Amino acid sequence: MKQSFSKINKVEGELTFRGDKSISHRSVIFSALSEGKSIIKNLSNSDDVASTIGCFKELGAEFNFLNDELEVVGKGINSFNAPSKQLDAGNSGTTARLLSGILSAQNFDSELIGDESLSKRPMSRVANPLRTMGAKITLADDNFLPMKISNTSLHPIEYEMEIASAQIKSALLLAAIHLPQESKIIEKLITRDHTERMLRLPTYYEAGKKIISAAQLNYPKKSIYNVPGDISSASFFIVLALLAKDSELVIRNCSLNESRIGIIEVLQKMGGDITIISQSSNMGEPVGDLLIRSTEQLTNIKLDERIIPNIIDELPILSIAGIFADGDFEVRNAKELRVKETDRINAVCRNMERAGINVTEFEDGFRFSGSPKSQSNIFESFGDHRIAMSFSILGMLLENETIINDFESVSISNPLFLEQIAKILN
Ligand code: S3P
């Protein structure tokens, strides 16, 4: 589906976002793992979270949507049903990777599949460390879905992460909570911490590294989850409000988890007028309200390697802010972008070229200079929700009409994107 956008005057008003996708996945997973009835409030309505629910239904967990809440009847440790068919993670890397850790610890065989995009994304990164715990996993070409996981017994590990990835870390922690003895997972570069935070796993720092312990005593218990609004979905609107003239936008109940607010910190350092107007805590996750006002001139800054995992999903929309800012916009140390829903380095570079930006592409990033030309643009989503939304925002800032091809991918994370845009237009 093609979607067209034209220049907007200003944005004004208030938005709240459905639950953060990463926290929603984990709320579903922990509810399905724990014995008895859990309630999830403000669950993400994304296709990705629906994929996670689909997989756990097949494993025997029950899901009942009651008004705005999801009731989950979980199974308890070692009580899932052996699946009667392949478990389909759809487009969702988080579903496939987190589930691989759980399935490795079950006393039955299982097989994980995904859509065309997910079937091209690397899985040896999660299979290899799980194999060091004793997991029996086979992959197509030893790297891709389908992933076949055989019944075997695991043992605890002490493992230092080779790739900065919350998905791999979480897969290992989720396998580890099935074992009586303690495992330790060590991170050099800090990634999003929802798994350890929500499971209250013991964590400490030593020589600049983060060490997380996990064992069966940390297995989740039934609970009430109240998921804070998705900061990654909000980031598109934050950039739009900064760049559109005379705009003022309030975003309520937004996740402000420290391992996720890099986008706010970077935009503030660039000169962006973003204020946290209130802050509180919700199931151990910081949440708050944001006020964003148009900013006359942003200035590009150097992005340190350590912030990259914190803004990994926001780099496409940050690039849009970057091309309107003073100075060149450069991202390095971000080769993980090449293995997201699409190769996001390629996707952003090709669309920027279409907008008339001077592009230098690196294996691990890009540099953009010059300003977008006033011309009609057709951008490709590459089937990737964050590319579709990033270039939609650009389309609302350019003089001439913009078309986004394959726009429907936005529902992977935010089916309400167009409705929310309509709500704040003036
Ligand atoms: C996620 C972790 C990140 C992120 C993804 C969601 C998670 O992936 O890009 O959208 O919920 O754990 P990596 O951990 O592979 O970087």
Write a structural description:
The protein is an alpha+beta fold. It has two domains: 3-19 and 228-424, UDP-n-acetylglucosamine1-carboxyvinyl-transferase, Chain, CATH 3.65.10.10; 21-225, UDP-n-acetylglucosamine1-carboxyvinyl-transferase, Chain, CATH 3.65.10.10. It has helices at residues 21-33, 47-58, 93-104, 124-132, 166-176, 194-198, 231-243, 262-269, 315-324, 344-354, 385-395, 417-424, and strands at residues 3-5, 12-16, 36-41, 62-66, 69-74, 87-88, 110-113, 136-140, 144-150, 158-160, 183-187, 203-206, 209-214, 224-226, 248-255, 273-282, 285-293, 329-331, 358-362, 365-369, 377-380, 402-405. The chain has a four-stranded mixed β-sheet with strand order 2-15-17-16. It has a four-stranded mixed β-sheet with strand order 4-5-3-14, with helices on one face. A four-stranded mixed β-sheet has the order 6-7-9-8. β12 and β13 form a beta hairpin. The protein binds shikimate-3-phosphate (S3P). Residues 22, 25, 94, 165-167, 170, 191-192, 312-313, 336 line the site of shikimate-3-phosphate (S3P). Shikimate-3-phosphate binds at residues 22, 25, 94, 165-167, 170, 191-192, 312-313, 336.
